[in-house]
Design goal:
Blueprint: H1 3-21, E1 28-30, E2 39-42, H2 56-77, E3 81-91, E4 94-104
Parallel strand pairs: 1-3, 2-3
Antiparallel strand pairs: 3-4
Length: about 110
């Protein structure tokens, strides 16, 4: 597995250990930009940035896959999460990126 996946798995394992040690934990917090996939926001006027060498359809697919990874993480831990995550906004003018904190409830709703 890639380094990204190894780090992700390590955080999942640490989170599981913490929850096993204290099932009453109310919130699982992962540090800044730890989550390996960005939270993508595609504006209605979004266009595929030429430097990405991909189509808007492929970007939408990535967005869905990345959001599913967040949902799966919350559901697997069955606890709300506060994730340190990169956010990428794709719009007609190009892209903007931010370091973000994302709250996700135990069902995966952000």
């Amino acid at each position: 597995p890639s380094k990204v996946w190894r780090i992700y798995e390590e955080y999942m394992n640490l989170s599981r250990q913490a929850l096993a040690a204290d099932p009453d934990v109310k919130l699982v917090v992962w540090p800044e930009t730890m989550f390996p996939f960005p939270w993508m926001i595609l504006r209605d006027d979004a266009q595929a940035p030429p430097e990405w060498e991909t189509t808007l359809e492929e970007i939408r697919e990535r967005q869905t896959n990345f959001r599913n990874a967040v949902i799966t993480t919350a559901r697997d831990l069955n606890k709300p999460l506060l994730l340190g995550i990169s956010t990428i906004i794709v719009e007609a003018e190009g892209t903007r990126g931010y370091n973000s904190a994302l709250y996700v409830d135990r069902t995966g709703q952000a």
